[in-house]
């Protein structure tokens, strides 16, 4: 980050422009600033200061003869100053703890879904949670026929979680084939996750075709493929898409909203967010194009990791909203929520 030396007058004017932008989202001119200023500063003096701030790349004029708005560089300077001030989240703190604690009793998935919804509710923007792909080993696999052409693949992992997927089967497949395929896989799953098992079985079927018939091999390949192809590198939970639609003026236009929704539906986002916080010890803020995945969306991201007992990052949570979001309010909310989630997942007292 480029360092700037700003005297008190320049800092005051920049903060006035930024606060006006965050509150109203509109360019502000020297006359308006002069009227709002607590000091008796003339419009001409303010224009001179604004010209210097523009030269530094901290503010800009969106249209000829219009007022000024902060650039991403100007917002970054403002946010970095906020991070240097110890702010605390106190509003509805007890309610947040109670809601997350109750959700945590229903399991990690319920907890993280509640976290995303709570962040959205508290900030009036989109709440986001991302976690790495589960690497749990498999305990049991079973194939269950549900019709002549479809079957259910049931998977139980070592944590006891049960999930299932539908697959197409060849018409006329005998019941014995389902049992054969299940028994074959269950004899191979010790200390294997789904990706490892698929690689192992593919190799064995190719090398030992005589040990399993064609129908069973086809069933196994289809069953493992539907699971392997459905296992992303990470999982993304987003709540509050509708909150983004309510702030069209802040996002400039519908095209930016469309771009944002495309970004939220991009699996790369989840992976990149985990990379961004992998070495973070607290809140990180990305303003507009500072994160390449948000280029063209007109949005900012405030995100923080949650960690295991060993201080290993096991996920991230945060808020996505327009660049004119209320940073001073949202930063402590995200920071505090990440600490609460870490403690709940680690079974610690809050």
Short description, anyone?
With 350 residues, the chain is α+β, with helices and mostly antiparallel strands.
3D structure, described in words:
The protein folds into 3 domains: 8-83, Winged helix-like DNA-binding domain superfamily/Winged helix DNA-binding domain (Arc Repressor Mutant, subunit A), CATH 1.10.10; 93-133 and 233-345, Beta-Lactamase (2-Layer Sandwich); 138-228, 2-Layer Sandwich (Enolase-like, domain 1). The protein is 47% helix and 18% strand. The protein is built from 13 helices and 10 strands. A hairpin with a 4-residue loop joins strand 5 and strand 6. The longest helix has 19 residues, at 327-345. It is elongated and about 90 Å long.
Main sheet: which strands, in order across? 7-3-10-9-8
The CATH architecture of the largest domain can be named as 2-Layer Sandwich
Helices and strands, in order, run as: HHHEEHHHEEEEHHHEHHHEEEH
Strand content: 15-25%
The largest pleated sheet is described as: 5 strands, antiparallel
Measure the end-to-end span.
36 Å
- How many extended strands? 10
The DSSP helix count reads 13
Number of domains: 3
Topology readout:
Elements: H1 8-24, H2 30-36, H3 43-55, E1 59-60, E2 69-70, H4 72-83, H5 93-105, H6 108-123, E3 126-132, E4 138-145, E5 150-157, E6 162-168, H7 175-186, H8 194-207, H9 214-228, E7 234-239, H10 241-245, H11 254-264, H12 267-277, E8 284-287, E9 299-307, E10 313-322, H13 327-345
Antiparallel strand pairs: 1-2, 3-7, 3-10, 4-5, 5-6, 8-9, 9-10
């Amino acid at each position: 980050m480029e360092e700037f030396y700003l005297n008190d007058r320049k800092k005051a004017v920049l903060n006035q422009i930024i606060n006006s932008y965050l509150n109203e989202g509109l360019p502000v001119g020297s006359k308006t600033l002069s009227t709002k200023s607590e000091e008796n500063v003339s419009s001409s003096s303010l224009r001179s200061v604004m010209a210097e701030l523009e030269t530094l790349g901290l503010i800009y004029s969106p249209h000829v003869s219009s007022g000024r708005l902060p650039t991403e560089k100007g917002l970054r300077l403002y946010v970095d100053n906020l991070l240097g001030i110890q702010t605390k989240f106190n509003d509805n703190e007890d309610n947040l703890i109670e809601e997350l604690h109750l959700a945590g009793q229903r399991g990690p998935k319920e907890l993280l879904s509640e976290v995303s919804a709570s962040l959205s509710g508290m900030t009036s923007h989109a709440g986001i949670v991302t976690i790495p792909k589960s690497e749990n080993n498999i305990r049991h696999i079973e194939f269950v026929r549900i019709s002549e052409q479809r079957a259910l693949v049931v998977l139980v992992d070592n944590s006891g979680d049960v999930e299932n997927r539908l697959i197409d089967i060849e018409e006329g497949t005998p019941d014995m084939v389902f049992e054969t395929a299940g028994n074959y896989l269950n004899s191979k799953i010790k200390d294997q996750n789904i990706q490892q098992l698929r690689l192992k079985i593919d190799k064995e079927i190719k090398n030992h075709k005589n040990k399993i018939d064609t129908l069973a091999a086809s069933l196994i390949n289809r069953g493992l493929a539907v699971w392997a192809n459905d296992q992303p590198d990470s999982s993304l939970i987003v709540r509050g898409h509708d909150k983004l639609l309510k702030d069209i003026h802040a996002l400039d236009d519908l095209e930016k909203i469309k771009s944002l929704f495309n970004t939220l539906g991009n699996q790369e986002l989840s992976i990149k967010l985990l990379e961004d916080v992998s070495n973070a010890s607290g809140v990180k803020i990305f303003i507009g194009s500072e994160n390449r995945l948000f280029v063209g969306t007109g949005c900012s991201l405030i995100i923080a990791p949650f960690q295991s007992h060993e201080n290993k990052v096991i996920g991230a949570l945060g808020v996505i909203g327009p660049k004119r979001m209320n940073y001073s309010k949202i930063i402590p909310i995200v920071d505090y929520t990440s600490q609460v989630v870490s403690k709940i997942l680690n079974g610690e007292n809050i």
